[in-house]
What does this fold into?
Amino acid sequence: MKIRLIWTGKTKERFILDGVGKYLKLLGRYADVSITEIKEEKGADIRRSLEKTGERILKLKLPYLLLDEKGRSFSSVEFAEYISRPGYPLNFVLGGAYGVSEKVKEMADSRIALSKMTFTHEMTRLILMEQMYRAFTIIHKSGYHH
It folds into this structure.
């Protein structure tokens, strides 16, 4: 299975970089996971910056699931069932500190919420990866999830 994580900007926090590395290694048992970092547009006009960054995401021309606080919530077991659907590409888009443009939201195949709580965009990367690892251990009954 191939999984592509598409996120805005570089991961700057060392502990998150370490965690991302850890989960990339753990996920390697179950899937081919790649990360695409989209250059984040900077500027005083947040809406315009989101639009320009969104254009970069949409240029990839991939079906994708968007991480969005207003998206569908899952338990870990439900998430495992969701991502194990056959034949569905797993491309996850995670926005920056201000989220993503309206166009990116409109074009998403589905929206997924990790929690009703708000996390930093960098923490979201790590939480998603841990939940993906948990999902694969549920699917393969390898004991990580109790």
About this structure: The two ends are 24 Å apart (CA to CA). The CA atoms of residues 97 and 121 lie 6 Å apart. The chain has one domain: 2-139.
